[in-house]
Amino acid sequence: LVPLDEFIAEVKLIKSNNLHFRVKEGVNQDEIALLASNFNNLIEHLEHAFVLQKTFVANASHELRTPITRMVIGAEIALSQERSSDDYKKALNSVLDDAEKLENIITSLLSLAEADLEYTSSTLENVRIDELLWHIQEQWKQRLPDNQLLIEFGELPADGDLLSIPANPTLLQIAVDNIISNGFKFSDHRPVTCRLEVKADGIHLDITDHGPGITALQQQSIFQPFYTSSVKQEHKGTGMGLYMAHKIITLYRGSIIVKSQKDGGTTFEIHFEQF
Fold first, then answer.
1. Which strand (E) or helix (H) includes residue 165?
2. Which of 15, 194, 234, 267 is the most buried (most CB within 10 A)?
3. Measured between alpha carbons, how far apart are the two ends of the chain, in Å?
4. 126-272 is a CATH 3.30.565.10 domain
5. Phi, then psi, of 223 in degrees rounded to 5
6. Cα dihedral across residues 58, 268, 259, 238: positive or negative
7. If residue 105 lies in a helix (H) or strand (E), which one and from where to where?
8. Residue 119: which pLDDT band, with cuts at 50, 70 and 90?
9. Percentages of the chain per state (helix, strand, coil), in multiples of 5
10. Where is average pLDDT lowest: 139-148, 222-231, 253-262?
11. Looking at the DSSP assignment, which residues form a beta bridge with residue 203?
């Protein structure tokens, strides 16, 4: 029982502030060593999650503080002396822009929290991807008629169950819609295409836009929270859309990769394994 007692004693040493600590696995290939190895793997995942959480909170704090700071400074400058009505109008427009950005960030954070809550509390349904695409296409027609969402099909099975994945339909729609919305934002009213196909390894959904492309360096960060690649004000977003899409898709055991080249558009390749 000595090795087990030592293992228990080391486990008790682990706190939230020292998740880098690992228990001794020893050299024997016995049950205690296997238990210690699996426990260390679990702690490694927890440590990684804590780091991501701290980074996310730091980024969120920065993103919220920046527009608030600009609003305060802009208001103080406007009130520091008498100005013309045009100057006051410019100052108010600047404050309004920052207020709208702040609202968008808060909305994204609330949606992300809601996504976590719905995933943990809801019962999964079999969601047919083809029907989901038709629904999203109809919504885009009503929302922005000038933005054309095209749907193409490759090889599809006769069995509709092979087009379905277990998911929360609302969250899955948010994920796909965020990618489509990102495509429209950079495509200057050119079409965005969704191509659906079922292969031996599962469901494949490719979403392609006609934007300026994403550099290899940008692709390394595109799924990180609050990351925005555009320097143009009209293309500025909260940097949460693709992060949420990636998070939701991976929650449902899917994968997403981006393929792009300069001035050649971008394709997001989504893959769900067959269950």
1. strand 164-167
2. 194
3. 42
4. yes
5. -100, 10
6. negative
7. helix 85-121
8. low
9. 55, 15, 30
10. 222-231
11. 198, 272
Whether the model clears a pTM of 0.85, i.e. scores above it, the answer is: no
Between CA 145 and CA 148 the distance in angstroms is: 7
Q: What is the rounded distance in angstroms from the CA atom of residue 115 to the CA atom of residue 159? A: 30
Domain spans in the chain, listed from the N-terminal domain onward: 2-116, 126-272
Q: Which amino acid is at 233?
A: Q
Distance (Å, rounded) from C-alpha 47 to C-alpha 51?
6
Amino acid identity of 263?
A: D
Amino acid letter for position 243: Y
CA-closest candidate to residue 99, choices 128, 70, 142: 70
Q: pLDDT tens digits, residue range 17-46?
A: 888 888 888 777 788 888 888 888 888 878
Alpha carbon of 117 to those of 18, 121, 194, 248: distances in Å?
28, 6, 28, 12
Q: Which two tokens stand for residue 25?
A: 């696995």
Using an 8 Å Cβ cutoff, are 241 and 235 in contact? no
Question: Rounded CA gap, 104 and 244, in Å?
Answer: 14
Question: What is the CATH class of 2-116?
Answer: mainly alpha
Q: Any idea of the CA torsion for 132, 138, 140, 144, to the nearest 10 degrees?
A: 180
Specify the DSSP element, H or E, that contains 59.
helix 31-79
**Whole-angstrom Cα distance, residue 78 to residue 76?**
5
Instruction: Decide: helix, strand or coil at residue 27.
Output: coil
Could you count the other beta carbons within 10 Å of the beta carbon of residue 182? Answer: 23
The token pair that represents 154 in the structure block = 């490759």
